[in-house]
Amino acid sequence: MNNNIEKLQKMIDESEKIVFFGGAGVSTESGIPDFRSADGIYMMDYKYPPEKIISHSFFVEHTKEFYEFYSKHLYAPGAKPNAAHYKLAELEKVGKLSAVITQNIDGLHTAAGSRNVYELHGSTLRNYCMKCGKSFDVEYVCGCNDIPRCSCGGIIKPDVVLYEESLNDTTVNGALKAIENADMLIVAGTSLTVYPAAGFIRYFKGKNVVLINRDATEMDERFGFIIHGKVGEILSQIKA
Ligand code: NAD
């Protein structure tokens, strides 16, 4: 065990209310690209920048193009949880972790067995008709070659928070409360550039905080303890 893992293990051992705050980097080891890495979605060549494509106005004005991009890059059929997702579920099960707060929309924390998950940006797994509210699964929505529609004629929208849309109040309040009550905060796999989510870590008042990220972030100076590396590889070395 190297020094960083030993230090992380010690922090986890002495903590009782750990909160995990993660982003797209948590799922790259499951084969889902993040946004800002060299092989991330932002580096791909598109007619419009990805922030524009996954915005509310683009969804309304160019629904077909939105779905072409979305089905190809944000829907990940067959992706399975990785070691990070499973370790967090295990930490919750043994009573050490109180919540996972994620910016991801892939549903992999829940698939790994985590129960108290705050999906700040929603989930691709939930979809609803904008006219009558009927629910649809992601296979139906992303399997359509055209704009997905309900039998009532309404357009189906993923329950995902697009740029220009607000986060869900109940989810935000639950996540902030969990952070405020935590005695340890693990931040991982996020560039900490997407607001308001990135600002949530300011609510932490506890003792132990760690950033586990492959690359440097704009907020590195806020963290006394940083481990640069792959979150799945790192958390797999931790004993719950
Ligand atoms: P980001 O792409 O801006 O940053 C990802 C960060 O994770 C980078 O700093 C990178 O160095 C790091 N990283 C990549 N792989 C890693 C690994 N294995 N271990 C540790 N660190 C790793 O992602 P973000 O900050 O989450 O913000 C982007 C937005 O993109 C979020 O709002 C999210 O909703 C959305 N998104 C979600 C998914 C998903 O659901 N899986 C995928 C792409 C984008």
CA radius of gyration is 18 Å
List of distinct ligands in this structure: nicotinamide-adenine-dinucleotide
Helical proportion? 25-40%
Helix/strand order? HEHHHHEHEEEHEHEEEH
Amino-to-carboxy terminus distance: 15 Å
Can you list the strand order of the major beta sheet?
3-2-1-7-8-9
Structure description:
This protein is of the alpha/beta class. It has two domains: 1-31 and 81-121 and 166-240, Rossmann fold (3-Layer(aba) Sandwich); 33-75 and 124-160, SIR2/SIRT2 'Small Domain' (2-Layer Sandwich). It is 30% helix and 18% strand. It has nine helices and nine strands. The chain has helices at 3-13, 50-53, 56-61, 63-73, 83-93, 108-112, 138-143, 169-180, 231-235; strands at residues 18-22, 97-102, 117-119, 122-129, 135-136, 156-160, 184-188, 208-213, 226-228. The radius of gyration is 18 Å and the shape is globular. It starts with a helix and ends in a 5-residue tail after the last helix. Nicotinamide-adenine-dinucleotide binds next to strand 8 and helix 9.
Write a short abstract of this structure.
The chain is an alpha/beta fold and 240 residues long.
Write the layout of secondary structure elements.
Layout (H helix, E strand, L loop, with lengths): L2 H11 L4 E5 L27 H4 L2 H6 L1 H11 L9 H11 L3 E6 L5 H5 L4 E3 L2 E8 L5 E2 L1 H6 L12 E5 L8 H12 L3 E5 L19 E6 L12 E3 L2 H5 L5
Parallel strand pairs: 1-2, 1-7, 2-3, 7-8, 8-9
Antiparallel strand pairs: 4-5, 4-6
Bound molecules: nicotinamide-adenine-dinucleotide.
The site of nicotinamide-adenine-dinucleotide has 32 residues, from strand 8 and helix 9.
